[in-house]
Prior knowledge:
By secondary structure, the chain is mainly alpha-helical.
Amino acid sequence: MKNKFLLAGAIAGALAVALGAFGAHGLKPHLDEYQVRIYEKGVDYQFYHALALLAVGMLTGGDGDSRWLIRAGWLFIFGIIGFSGSLYLLACRDLLFFPVNWAGPVTPLGGIGLLGGWSALWLGIRKKNNG
């Protein structure tokens, strides 16, 4: 399980760099200031949680009882997709050929996933430290 979260963190980080560059150089001329801020918020949160996934991957190694850490990793993945992914869609809604109104309610669900990931990470570290 450790390598899956390290891999997911590395992929999420690389995608954040690529999406950030694409937003700054390819999308910025086509988005208004508000849309650019939404897009950049998605990139920022994807970066933060890519690092969190790397931490989860490093912490899950070596012991047999990492249930909370594993849950944290999956919640971070869900949160990145839900939160950042929906922000990307909402920021680019005028450029897409399909409706993305459904993405608005997904954003807070992704945020709940991120909050759950941090809570599970806290519980996993606590359990790991208390033996």
